[in-house]
Amino acid sequence: MVVRDAVNALVVNQVVGVRFSVLQGSSSGLAVYVETHSAITNENGLASLEIGGGSAVTGSLASINWANGPFFIKSEVDPAGGTNYTINGTTQLLSVPYAMYAASSGSSIPGPQGPAGNDGAPGVAGPQGQQGPTGPQGPAGVNGQNGLSAYQVWLSLGNTGSESDFISSLSGPQGVAGPIGPQGPTGATGAQGPAGNDGATGPQGPTGPQGTTGAQGPAGPQGATGAQGPAGNDGAAGQQGPTGPQGATGAQGPAGPQGATGAAGPQGPTGPQGATGPQGPAGSNGINGAEGKTLLNGINNPSAVLGNNGDFYINTTTNTLFGPKTSGVWPATGVSLVGPQGNGYSNGTANNQIMYWNGTAWVTLNPGNEGQTLTICNNALTWTVGGQCPGTITSLNCSAATNTGILVAGNNASGVSSMVPYTGGNGGPFSGQSLASTGVTGLTATLASGYFGIGAGNLTYSISGVPSSTGTASFNIHVGGQSCVLNLNIVTLTEAYPTGSVFCNGPTTIVEVSNPSTGKVWMDRNLGANQVATNFNDFNASGDLYQWGRRSDGHQCRNSSITGTLSSSNQPSHGSFIATGSQPYDWRQTPNANLWQGVNGINNPCPTGYRLPTSSEFNAETLTWSSANFTGAFASPLKLVLTGGRDYNTASTTQITGGWYWTSTVILGQSDALSFSSFAPTIQANYRGYGFSVRCIKD
């Protein structure tokens, strides 16, 4: 027997006290024989004892009438070596009918071969005894009287039925798997197998990140002078500049030609009376000159009485021009003499500013940043990094986004992302961006910088933060010249689980954890667990105990009620643990192997996007453990703990004696489960009526 103390630790190389009792009738029946032992455990906590070889306390083992069963063996242990027995267990003793037959029969016709029993756990090898001398040949014994057949013995014990019923009674229920024996020595290395065929070429990997900008190359030769561009349009008229200083008087120019006779001058003073001359001829009247126009100004708009028809007026406060005055009326509104606001740079005055002709108009290109390259992109001059034009796409479809993970109100977003498809990519780069959510606030969508593909592709936004409430979180995406709105649904924690789920202590918090060695993403705790494990036997981290294939209907609660009626449907109408005492030890009348297969399994108890792991996925995790036992299980990224289990027949619960975790893998009429304790982890088939823990893996 293997001896452990009250905290499940092995008792090694130590004297222990043991008491065996043979109980008649039931596991709590009368003790018809009691004996005690004092033994020493080895380095594995193993003590080898023989019932009947101890110190008898009550009764005699030889006087027990084994036909008056059933009988049970009760073992009690005092790890301190005394008689204060604190650890006990009781197991039924099962008869072996063939042995009874062999002891009393010599010539009866044997019954048909019964089914092979399960292999027992290998015992510890005893020491090799010395070779004894060969004894003399004894005389032939007298033939014994013919005994009863095994079937007749069975009938004599009060049983009824045919020989087929007798044979069917020989198989007992499957016992709980025993502990794994110690690790055997490593076998010799096998011969090198032949080289396998080359695998198919993998898909093209993603484009690598943009390399750093290379050093500036030497200046190229001077290019030929381009053709003279067309003359630019005249600029707007500037404001009247101030009057310049009076220039020096120029030299006397040459006499001009005789001008036309001017108009008659004013009447001169009356001269002295001259002698009366002869009467001259009368002259013709001159042409009237054109009426002049006036430019007036003031600090207010012009009044009606000011100026004449045809005059203009400037309001020097608002720099507004009015005119011409017509029919004695000034225009109600004038024309501003101030041009429109510029684009932040005064044309022709900013350092490194460029104006270029785009074929239809002069365009101003403001200065770039140091190290950028002037590049023609989409027929326009553009400042770029390394001469790479900005990436563009022709469409962006947020409504077709593929979303991964669940967003739960009030819970930190873990492992959530959205993949938004696009078309018409030109292979150019795009910048990273972080977008805050609207509607439901508290979330951020982050896009890492990269390059568009040629044609169709996807942009992946990682979602982080804590959503403030349920509802819709929206992100306004602008990238590559296209825009769309990404909408994500925020649910309650209960809504993240299958409809109709019953919880023992509220829905399990969904937090991701990953193993970098396997690349798999898991929930960081068992279904039903209140917390992430803090030690290898943390009861608050052990969670609920599910019968394989059942949904979360309440049966998984460790204190759920018990029924012995098997279910005829995939989803029983109650939340009781279904105990079963007959093959194949399944809670369902007709077993169904498809109840926990994948995220769309009929009774998948995991939240949206999660499922039960396969045997291969669990096995890959165990290969990364630092030690092949419960210590390595807890030290792993998944922090697996000793969970205990629930018996398929009695529905009794064992607390923290081992770790048992279901997988989705089925084998014949059973399902695989991972088990571990102080022994190495194993994955083997178990009856589906057992209650084991569930750890969900992301699909």
Could you describe the 3D structure shown?
The protein has 699 residues and is mostly beta strands. It contains five helices and 37 strands. The strands form 13 sheets. Strands 14, 15, 16, 18, 20 and 22 form a six-stranded antiparallel β-sheet that branches. A hairpin with an 8-residue loop joins strand 4 and strand 5. The two termini are 43 Å apart. About 2% of the residues have low confidence.
Overview features:
single chain; 699 residues; mainly beta; 37 strands
Summarize the structure.
The protein contains five helices and 37 strands. It is mainly beta and 699 residues long.
Give the C-alpha Rg: 51 Å
Cα distance, first to last residue?
43 Å
Q: Give the assembly state of these chains.
A: single chain
Strand portion: 25-35%
Low-confidence stretches: 97-108
Total DSSP helices: 5
Number of strands: 37
Gross geometry: rod-shaped
The share of residues in helices is: under 10%
Helix- and strand-based class?
A: mainly beta
Largest sheet: 6 strands, antiparallel
Average pLDDT level:
81
Compile the SSE list and pairings.
Blueprint: E1 15-24, E2 30-40, E3 55-58, E4 71-78, E5 87-93, H1 97-104, H2 150-156, H3 163-168, E6 295-298, E7 312-315, E8 320-322, E9 335-336, E10 354-357, E11 362-365, E12 373-377, E13 380-384, E14 395-396, E15 402-404, E16 416-426, E17 429-430, E18 433-436, E19 438-439, E20 443-447, E21 450-451, E22 454-465, E23 471-479, E24 482-490, E25 512-514, E26 521-523, E27 546-547, E28 562-563, E29 577-578, E30 610-611, H4 615-622, H5 630-635, E31 645-646, E32 653-654, E33 659-667, E34 670-676, E35 682-686, E36 691-692, E37 697-698
Parallel strand pairs: 6-7, 28-29
Antiparallel strand pairs: 1-2, 1-4, 2-3, 4-5, 7-8, 8-9, 10-11, 12-13, 14-16, 15-16, 16-22, 17-21, 18-20, 19-23, 20-22, 23-24, 25-26, 27-36, 30-37, 31-32, 33-34, 34-35
